[in-house]
Every structure is written in structure tokens, then in C-alpha cells.
Amino acid sequence: QEQLVESGGGLVQAGGSLRLSCVASRRAFSSYAMGWFRQAPGKEREFVAAITLSGTITYYGDSVKGRFTISRDNAKNTVNLQMNSLKPEETAEYYCAGLNRCSGSGCYRSSYEYDYWGQGTQVTVSS
């Protein structure tokens, strides 16, 4: 069973930046696509970004395009999410997730497709 551990969350002012990291426990990390999702209280889990297993293709939610960057280092079993120009409405618990096999078009954006999840890291953006 893959274990994912997120870090890097915290309190930041609007317009500020944070860098989230997620470390996987197994060397099989390089065989998973990886994604970031977020969930605010009372809201559904929202797709943020995803990256293919090789790291050559990335996907972003419309609301974060141009401000967030996902990257991975397979040698370190790590996926990162650089978040710039943060907004108060982006306050949420952020989760990283691993996807074994894509079932079809749009799979990277669906939380139901992912097989492994971290415990989350809280990001709070103050106005």
C-alpha cells in the first residue's frame, strides 16, 4: 500500500505563495500519475493539478492556471505544488493522490480515479 505524506501548508496572506510537497513511501512512485486536490469545509473535493508518471504532461484546474505549477522528482519520490498569487477562497485542505491507471479521457481530473491519498495539509489564505 502506497503512503503519501504532504507538507508545506500554512497561513499566508492573499497574494502570497506556498510550496506544497508530497513524499511517497514506495519506489513504485514513478509508475503513478500524481494529482493535487483541495477541499474546503462544506464543499466538494476540487481538482487542482495533475502530472503524468514521466512528468512530461501536466493538467490544471481552470481557476489555478498560470498561478500554480506541479512538478515531480521520481528519484526522490516527491511531487510538488508551487502556488503563487493565492486567494482567500483557496483556503482548504490540500491532498496529494496517486493514480495507477487512467481509465479514459479526463481521468486525471476525477478524484474517483485515484488509488492513493495523503492525509492532507491545511492552507489558509488571509485577506
What are the main properties of this structure?
single chain, 127 residues, mainly beta, 7-stranded mixed sheet, 4-stranded antiparallel sheet, 0% helix
Assign a percent range to the helix content.
Answer: under 10%
Terminal CA distance reads: 39 Å
Radius of gyration computed on alpha carbons: 13 Å
- Give average pLDDT, whole number: 94
**Number of helices in the DSSP assignment:** 0
Q: Structural class per helix/strand content?
A: mainly beta
* Overall outline: globular
- Percent range for β-strand residues: over 45%
* Low-confidence runs: none
> How many strands appear in the DSSP assignment?
11
Q: Write down the secondary-structure element order.
A: EEEEEEEEEEE
The major beta sheet can be summarized as: 7 strands, mixed
